[in-house]
Amino acid sequence: MFPLLGNGIFLAEGNIHAQQRKALAPGFSISSIKALSPIFWRKALLLSRLWQFELKKEDVQSKSIEILDWLSRATLDIIGEAGFGADFDSLHHPDTPIRQAYQRFFIFDNWSRLFHGLHSQTRLARFLPMKANYELMASRRRVLNLASEIICDKQSKRLSQTLSREKNIIALIVRDNSTSNGKLSGNMTFDTMRDQVMTFLGAGHDTTAAGIGWTLHLLSKYPSTQDKLRREIQEYMPFLFSPDNREDESWLSKIDEDRLPYLNNVCRESLRYIPPVPFTLQHSTAGDQLCGYRVPAGTEVTICSNTINRVPEYWGTRADEFDPDRWDHLPETHTASAYMTFLHGPRGCIGKKFAETEMKTLLCCLLSVYIFEIDDSVDDPEKWKMWKITLRPRDGITLKGHASGVSAFRMAYTSLRFLSRELEALVLNFYRFPLPLANLL
Ligand code: HEM
User: Fold this and answer.
1) Residues near ligand 1 with C-beta < 6 Å?
2) Which residues bind heme (predicted)?
């Protein structure tokens, strides 16, 4: 993935990293993200409309959908417009070149896994005459060219004084870091800005898509949680549930996704339970002590968010269960640093607020139109978690989406199915105990 991420803030070190972080921070402030929220909503509404077309095309009320691919396209289009003012429109055009550049990376066949394994072990792997290497370099060229075009465009708009009309992260950063004659100034050279665009593109779409995908999977597994969340959304945003009003955008500026406490709990719990970035590697630049152990300079430290997010000492004895309500009664031993999904401190995720707002918007929009249910004909995606920077299921996430016109009946049906599954598990558990006893007699 690193060739696609560019040499931006993600790979910068020391003072250079601190300076870049300071220059980029205004673009990711809470007020900047709030201003971008209408873009999130428009793309979310488009996604739900396109799913409705899919149902209409086949004249059905429900359909199995591989949601992860759709979500990756939606989040790519969102980072394109909110991040750089570019409309990739991969929701309408799945084969758009920029989409293909990333798609190749997430193929999990045996060759791709071997190739990825080699790359993680040695930098020399990139020189091997393999088809996968040529494809990776072709993808890199595509992303690099696009990022260069974006920065050229912003610079020329800065010159013609039209950049101030643009509301996107990179326009704001170019404005803050360029002189009146359009030249980029200080630490933000043309190459640095181009690499930041590559970093935001790479770090900012598949992570959130995986987060939303896993959340919808968990909501399908726990229908009562899904119902409770849908009720909260309906209470706060009834217009979303009315086919006549949901497309009327006059409500866009009035809503605040952060005012839904249960939605907040569901998102945090899903990101805790299955963190899209399950671990990260850091290189210690100076010697230090960690829990009484000496860590010399130059040590490679692996930070396992997926483990820390489930340590019973911080999360309680039921740390291994998905339970959004836990956030209302965390154990006294809990500390904010135990939630490692976005890391913390100077290397923590700069796009956290962006990702949270995007995730909440897409969930509200989709849950107001569809009821999601596990598709028993495919393997449980939790069995096939695969890691390539983000944690994704090998075959994507396929769920049954029901248009919510059949809601009352469908909700009752899914709740009954859930109860019968729970009952079955209970009965199986009960019979597990008497068996050894029977053997003793
Ligand atoms: C659910 C979604 C996301 C998750 C779980 C996530 C997680 C993370 C994590 C764990 C890191 C630290 C990586 C490391 O140091 O090795 C990180 C860094 C970063 N993330 Fe995110 N991220 C998400 C979404 C986003 C979005 C939407 C953007 C941009 C729009 C973004 C931009 C970045 C950048 C630029 C860094 C590097 C920060 C630095 O080194 O100072 N992320 N992210």
Assistant:
1) 9-10, 21, 79, 199-200, 203-204, 207-208, 211, 276-277, 280, 341-343, 347, 349-351, 354-355
2) 349
Calpha distance 55→66 (Å, rounded)? 14
Query: Which amino acid makes up residue 11?
Result: L
- Residue 377 CA to ligand 1 center (angstroms) comes to 34
Domain span including residue 62: 2-277+341-430
For residues 101 and 134, what is the distance between their CA atoms, to the nearest angstrom? 12
At residue 341's C-alpha, the angle toward residues 146 and 390, to 5°, is 45
Q: Give residue 211 CA to ligand 1 midpoint distance, Å.
A: 12
Residue 133 domain flag: yes
pLDDT, tens only, 177-195: 877 666 777 667 889 999 9
Question: How many structural domains are present in the chain?
Answer: 1
Q: 60 in a domain, yes or no?
A: yes
Residues 6+ apart with CB under 8 A from 15: none
In a domain, 224, yes or no: yes
Residue 170: enclosing H or E segment and its boundaries? Answer: helix 169-176
pTM to 2 decimals?
Answer: 0.88
Q: Which residues are within 8 A (CB) of 384 and not within 5 positions of it... i.e. 6 or more apart? A: 393, 394, 395
The reply, when asked if residue 349 is annotated as ligand binding, is yes
pLDDT value for 188: 79
